[in-house]
Write a structure and sequence with these properties.
This protein is mainly α. The protein is built from seven helices and no strands. Helix 5 packs across helix 7. It is found in: Plastid, Chloroplast thylakoid membrane.
């Protein structure tokens, strides 16, 4: 870098320091530059008299924003909003709804066992069927509304709360709820 600067400036460090720098170029090897160079700017015109501008130059010119521009089109739904597609066997609805209901049911069953000492079968017999129907309807509708609007669960997930984590938690809750009912049936009483 220093040698390049010495070449451009025309004087080396050797002339200033007195021979301390052995790698500095000799002054006579530096070409002399003219300072009075004149530049001419030319433009080309097409046959109609208009200016011809290179495409790269056009791309580099910023386009000023419009004051009255048309609004952006509304975003298109990411997923199909047909009931047959949403509630299909491999659709986004059934496993998510069943998983959410299983998570809610597993936590509620364990909580009632701890507070009242009732197993899952006595919970259903003592008025639990109405709670089951009410929460099933509420959570099913709440889970279907975003799907009918075209919002996918994958687009709303981020960080730790991903859509895959929700699916796996729902699957584990389904297995846990069945295991809880089976264990209480075999044992003949509460698990806890």
């Amino acid at each position: 870098m220093a040698t390049g600067m010495q070449l451009i400036s025309g004087t080396g460090l050797a002339s200033r320091i007195g021979g301390l720098n052995r790698f500095a170029p000799v002054r006579s090897s530096v070409p002399l530059f003219k300072r009075d160079l004149k530049f001419r700017v030319r433009s080309t015109a097409d046959q109609d008299g208009g200016d011809v501008v290179d495409e790269k130059v056009k791309a580099a010119i910023p386009v000023p924003p419009r004051l009255f521009s048309t609004p952006a089109p509304p975003p298109q739904p990411e997923e199909s909003t047909k009931i047959s597609t949403i509630m299909a066997f491999d659709g986004p609805g059934p496993e998510r709804i069943n998983g959410r209901l299983a998570m809610l049911g597993f936590v509620a069953a364990i909580a009632v066992e701890l507070t009242r000492g009732q197993n899952i079968f006595s919970q259903i017999q003592n008025g639990g069927i109405m709670w089951f129907i009410g929460t099933t309807a509420l959570f099913s509708i709440a889970s279907l509304v975003p799907l009918f609007k075209g919002v996918s669960a994958d687009s709303r997930s981020g960080g730790v709360m991903t859509s895959d984590a929700e699916l796996w938690n729902g699957r584990l809750a389904m297995v846990g709820l069945i295991a809880l009912a089976y264990t209480e049936y075999i044992k003949g009483g509460t698990l806890v």
